[in-house]
Amino acid sequence: MEVDIYDFDKTIVPFDSGSLFILYCMVHYPWCIITLPLIAVAGILMLVGVINFTQFKKTCFSFVALIPVEKAVKKFWDKHIDSVHKWFFDRPRYSIVISASPDFLLADIAQRLGFDEIISTRHNIKNGMIIGQNCRDEEKVRRLFEAHDKDSLEIIDVYSDSYTHDRPIFSLATGKCYHIEKGKKVEFDFNEKYKN
Questions:
Q1: Which of these, 47, 67, 135, 161, could form a disulfide with 180 (CB 3.0-4.6 Å)?
Q2: pTM for this prediction
Q3: CA 75: distance to chain centroid?
């Protein structure tokens, strides 16, 4: 099966959806502010190397236990649906979106935009805690081939905003690699970009 792979944040939309959703909830459900000291402490612990990014992210979404998640997610995407880059609507092949953002946040927009498939960071919807690993870097490739037999896919084009974090998925492209810059697709040569 021929497929294209897309990152989500700052690729299909021009923002980091997880961070923007946290801010949205702090404004619309102000009692969530009580989790900010915990998030701040976790941020400091991450910066000094006591915990890793995945552990920090587990803390960031602890506020979901305090909100009506489905309602909040729907209203969030009602507000931001028009931010989706127009080029994404013209997809020539089966589309697999692979993202580090929470599954509970992306399920709604995936349905609205008609993603053929989405792979994202699994969270416990009741407490916001990450289940397993954060879906970024090499974990994106691992999760892709957990869902599909490697020999069953021919990955044609790959789209992402991050040369650093998405090198592993860029390396899978047999067609073209596109770096997303200010909402525009910029084609690049993988071997030239990563020759060192």
A1: 161
A2: 0.93
A3: 19
